């Protein structure tokens, strides 16, 4: 990889400092992924803790790579393996993110994610969906059609169907809606699509909150690794509530249900949903700050800056 002329970036990290940060990040990822890796080795799935690795594309090994983000030069890193990583460039004896290369390859994705996050931030959180998307995924499901078939329902199929029929479902997240059973689709007050994703997503949606992690990983190495792991941690917390409020019996995993079919369960769900909306919005702002620091298209900036 040819070196480019040295110009001073926004920040320069000495070798001792950046190697310490990289090691601390690797330790953080190892702690967060140890259970998943141990279970994977034994072929034992977990309906809550494995979700981020099954549904999203980043692997533990990819997460373990530490990225400082744009505008940070790593002193003495030219001899390090990261000098050969995609979208990095050597500057003398140092290494930094090649923002121009990244944006040439991923600029349209940055624009889309910027618009999606900014649009989501611009809307109030809609609370009170009570996680019924998970119930809609098993509504009138036939044998063998249950998404998490290794986990039993905590109510009978008839009782589960009755919960759906007593409520108004208003799921705004396409990637949840697309897993609804055929009979549940028409019961949703909204008919989200990939084309309307930017128009519909809102911060009260648990899946939209989990997706901050998806966007952070999809736009790595532009997104600093500490932010990616903050998104990971929140997504894992949200996934727990997502499954606690679901129709599944997780007692075998020592996970207590949030019984959204009761008034007490609804209140508990909304309280945690409100907290997650606030925290996911904080992550959206941090991601937007990252994207706004590079060459986001003026079209995206003009339409969606909040």
Your description of this structure?
51% of the residues lie in helices and 5% in strands. It is mainly alpha-helical. The chain has one domain (11-304). A four-stranded mixed beta sheet has the order 1-2-4-3. A hairpin with a 2-residue loop joins strand 3 (88-91) and strand 4 (94-97). The protein is elongated. It starts with 10 loop residues before the first strand and ends with a helix. 36% of the residues are buried. Mean pLDDT is 92; it is low at 1-6 and 298-306. It comes from Knoellia remsis. This is 3-methyladenine DNA glycosylase.
Write the layout of secondary structure elements.
Blueprint: E1 11-13, H1 15-42, H2 51-54, H3 60-64, E2 72-74, E3 88-91, E4 94-97, H4 99-121, H5 132-136, H6 157-165, H7 174-177, H8 182-185, H9 197-200, H10 206-218, H11 225-244, H12 263-292, H13 298-304
Parallel strand pairs: 1-2
Antiparallel strand pairs: 2-4, 3-4
Helix pairs in contact: 1-11, 4-12, 4-13, 10-11, 10-12, 11-12
Please tell me what the overall shape is: elongated
Order of helices and strands: EHHHEEEHHHHHHHHHH
Main sheet, how many strands, which sense, barrel? Answer: 4 strands, mixed
The helix fraction, in percent, is: 40-55%
Rg of Cα set? 21 Å
What is the tally of helical segments?
13
Give the quaternary arrangement of the chains: single chain
Give the total of domains: 1
Question: What distance lies between the first and last C-alpha atoms, to the nearest angstrom?
Answer: 39 Å
Q: Going across the major beta sheet, what is the strand order?
A: 1-2-4-3
* Average pLDDT level: 92
Unreliable spans: 1-6, 298-306
Structural class: mainly alpha
Q: How many beta-strand runs?
A: 4
> Strand content of the residues, in percent?
under 5%
